[in-house]
Amino acid sequence: MGEAAADPAPAKGRVAPPMSWRTRLSVLAAGYVTDATRRADGTVNRRLLGVLDMGVAACAAQRNGVASRDVTIDPAVPLRARLFYPCAAPTAAGDDDAEVERPAAVPVVVFFHGGGFAYLSAASPAYDAACRRIARHAGAAVLSVDYRRSPEHRFPAAYDDGFAALRFLDDGGPDVPGPGAPPIDAARCFLAGDSAGGNIAHHVARRYALDPSAFASLRLAGLIAIQPFFGGEERTPAELRLVGAPIVSVPRTDWMWRAFLPHSADRDHEASSPEGATAGIDAAAAAGFFPPATVVIGGYDPLQDWQRRYCDALHGKGKEVRVLEYPDAIHAFYVFPEFAESRDLMLRIKEIVAGSSK
Fold first, then answer.
1. Are the beta carbons of 135 and 143 closer than 8 angstroms?
2. What is the Cα Rg of the chain in Å?
3. Which positions ≥6 away from 35 have C-beta within 8 Å?
4. What is the C-alpha separation between 246 and 217, in angstroms, rounded?
5. Maximum distance among all alpha carbons in the chain?
6. Cβ partners under 8 Å of residue 127, min gap 6
7. Active site residue ranges
8. Mean pLDDT by 10 residues, the chain (358 residues)
9. CA atoms within 13 A on the CB side of 323
């Protein structure tokens, strides 16, 4: 695991690394939820999805040093998010009423969940737990945006919602109540997301970079794209080689693009094409307005060739890209904490966020 410049050797003889039976069942369940709720007419059975992906409530009480609450970004949409924040411990052990020293301001990670633009939410158990781990490891607030989903809300709704989250933080953001709750430093803001969320994080960073002067206090310190979802009309070697890999399949991703892109658009659209997604950022990149990027790639992810094209496209705009290669990782590996790669990535995110304080 770790950083590498070269492509990992092609997978041979298997399409997934060894997994425990419990993890394998979780992976199969994730695929089942997607397939079972997708209707033939191109819509999603939201009622059934609500049963199969029952969200968990926010928790104002500390759990492993992190509390959470739901906030409203724009009541007109409506657009909500779940805020996770690290809490200082009381000065007197075991005394919940003890005074705590007001902690220093913490960076904020604006996070976008995966799910092909159409599935899951900020309250989905896997993402609630993942954002809690990021907040704990990175010592940062995490604002997990519950963006509008396709096909009910196509391009560019998810990008609009992500940009609205930045505006929200720039305007003062959420009030974080309670003893030990830290203030948020919007000048140390990171965008992060996995799969479709990684795609959204990029496009929100792109919008910011094209007009950073529109923000009074918010500054982007980094972009963390975890196995970002990009695509095109042709089939890549990885897509052909990794048929049967967990979570991601070509039929699923084809449907997701059809559900998200504008009607009649193909996958050469700027939302999906790595080249189209990076178009027009040359000057912004040269000026440093497009944030430093870290891209996470898994060796058993059928989307990996598109992710490398994305890295190449950023390089072509003069951006340095830190690539984290995990040769044995499946798509969405990091939401399964039992994988060693998941624990390693949390430490890498901690390093990235900590670098904003130097």
1. no
2. 20
3. 252
4. 42
5. 63
6. 113, 114, 120, 121, 144, 335
7. 195, 301, 331
8. 43 62 88 92 96 95 93 97 85 51 87 98 97 97 98 98 98 75 94 98 98 97 98 97 93 96 97 98 95 97 98 96 96 94 98 85
9. 22
